[in-house]
Amino acid sequence: MSERPEDRNEKIAVRFQVNGEPTELLVSANETLLSALRNQLGLTGTKYGCGTGDCCACTVSVNGRAILSCLSLAAELEGENVTTVEGLSDGSKLNPVQASFAELGAVQCGFCTPGMIMTINALLAENPDPSEQEVRHYLRGNLCRCTGYVKIVDAALAAAGTMEA
Ligand code: FES
Ligand code: FES
Fold first, then answer.
1. Ligand 1 pocket mutation, candidates 50, 73, 112, 144, criterion most atoms within 8 A of CB
2. Residues in the chain with pLDDT < 50?
3. Measured in angstroms, how far is the CA atom of residue 140 from the centroid of ligand 1?
4. In what order do the strands lie in the sheet with 65-68?
5. CB of residue 143 inside a 6 A radius of ligand 2
6. What is the CATH code for 5-86?
7. Distance (Å, rounded) from C-alpha 34 to C-alpha 47?
8. Distance CA 65, CA 123 (A)
9. What is the structure's pLDDT at 3?
């Protein structure tokens, strides 16, 4: 029986786009995307909350889909297009969801914020005009210990241009 790379502790070369930049990394077979982003690329906007898929603080986009980077293996992302919260703004110009969070005070400690913003971006890409109920349903896995969620939902609706005046 042939030995697996993880048994030999070998590194694997993986090439993908991160925030539009071609990136090549050497990763262990069991290294998560979250670890590669934070520890190899210094992209610490993506947060390590639980590490077990239960808080969504580590949400990033892969090819436009929101995924949990703590449950994704970096070695499996060859050729994929990864976007983190750092990749949403255009220089100092925030994207609409980021701007709404800032304007409406949807950030307290900020730990959940990158994951919330990445999830809402994915929602608005799928459904540009969601109802409050749809926003709450889409965000059901994103945990926040501080805000009570009201301002986060308001910010999502404002970004979608659907909030009542
Ligand atoms: S750190 Fe990934 S879901 Fe909590
Ligand atoms: S703002 Fe603190 S966890 Fe959400």
1. 50
2. 162-165
3. 13
4. 21-28, 11-18, 81-83, 59-62, 65-68
5. no
6. 3.10.20.30
7. 8
8. 9
9. 65
Predicted local confidence at residue 161, as pLDDT: 78
What's the CA-to-centroid distance between 51 and ligand 1, angstroms? 5
Q: Which of 37, 49, 65 is nearest to 113 (CA)?
A: 49
Q: Parse the chain into domains and list their residue ranges.
A: 5-86, 96-159
The ligand that comes nearest to the alpha carbon of residue 110 is: 2
Which pLDDT score, from 0 to 100, does residue 165 have?
38
Check residue 37 and report its DSSP letter.
I
Q: Residue 58 C-alpha to ligand 2 middle, in angstroms?
A: 13
State if residue 112 touches ligand 2 by the CB under 6 angstroms criterion: yes
pTM of the prediction? 0.92
Does the structural domain 96-159 have CATH classification 1.10.287.110?
A: no
Three-state secondary structure call for residue 124: helix
With 0-12 CB in 10 A as exposed, 13-18 as middle and 19+ as buried, what is 113?
buried
